[in-house]
Amino acid sequence: MIMRRSDVLLLFVFLSAAASAHAQAAESATARQFTVTAGALGSAFNPNDQNQSFYVGGNNYLIGVGTYVDVHFTHWFQLEGEARWLRFNEYAGEHQDNYLLGPKIPIHRFGRADLYGKAMIGFAKMTFPYSYGYGTFTALAYGGGVDYRLSQKLTLRPIDFEFQQWPTWLPGSSLYPYGFSVGIGYRVF
User: Fold this and answer.
1) Which of 74, 93, 98, 100 could make an S-S bridge to 122, C-beta 3.0–4.6 Å?
2) Do the Cβ atoms of 135 and 126 come closer than 8 Å?
3) Which DSSP string do the residues of 27-44 spell out, in sequence order?
4) In the predicted model, what is the mean pLDDT of residues 50-78?
């Protein structure tokens, strides 16, 4: 079967268009997996110490600011580091600082929202009320939350819950602070 010149030209145009067409999503085998997101947090934590009567009622939580960094190596291998300074709404000068690092586990994706869990280890610093003393303690943290992608670069963290365990707080006792954070992150790369 002999093709006319117009058929050959039309075939050439279609092949050229198909070769230069761009898909809307990158192929999973070639998509970049490694990303780093840095963000800021606002937090409210119940210190859950012996001054419990001063913090009961929901309006006397320690309040503070923090920062976090998410390093996303692959879908299943992610690390999160966070630092939090709970310095507002103190009772008699009591405050806590946390410095934690650990894996972040993706649980489920709902459109632009990513549900995650996390387990971290690090240390916490506490200044006791009335300048009674201060200390640095080992801290374990378990929690989770939601990251909502606003754009390619911005991520809203509308809720992040964290339950901490300070196994050796004072001789013969442990401390279990818990609280919520909200934040916003920027994907650096």
Assistant:
1) 100
2) yes
3) -TTTS---EEEEEEEEEE
4) 77
How far, in Å, are 17, 115, 143, 164, 176 from residue 71 at the CA level?
Answer: 38, 16, 17, 22, 27
CB 77 within 8 A of CB 102: no
- Taking alpha carbons only, the member of 72, 25, 41 closest to residue 162 is 41
What is the rounded CA–CA span in Å between residue 163 and residue 157? Answer: 17
Q: Position of tokens 């939601």?
A: 146
Report d(CA 131, CA 149) in Å as an integer: 43
Average pLDDT of the chain is: 83
Taking the C-alpha atoms of residue 99 and residue 84, their distance in angstroms, rounded to an integer, is 7
Q: Encode pLDDT of 90-127 as tens digits.
A: 888 888 999 999 999 999 999 999 999 999 999 999 88
14, exposed or middle or buried, with CB in 10 Å at 0-12, 13-18, 19+?
A: exposed
How much is the pTM? Answer: 0.76
Structure-model confidence comparison of residues 168 and 101, the more confident one: 101
Q: Which residue reads 């006397």 in tokens?
A: 60
The count of C-alpha atoms lying within 13 angstroms of the C-alpha of 54, restricted to the half-sphere facing its C-beta, is 12
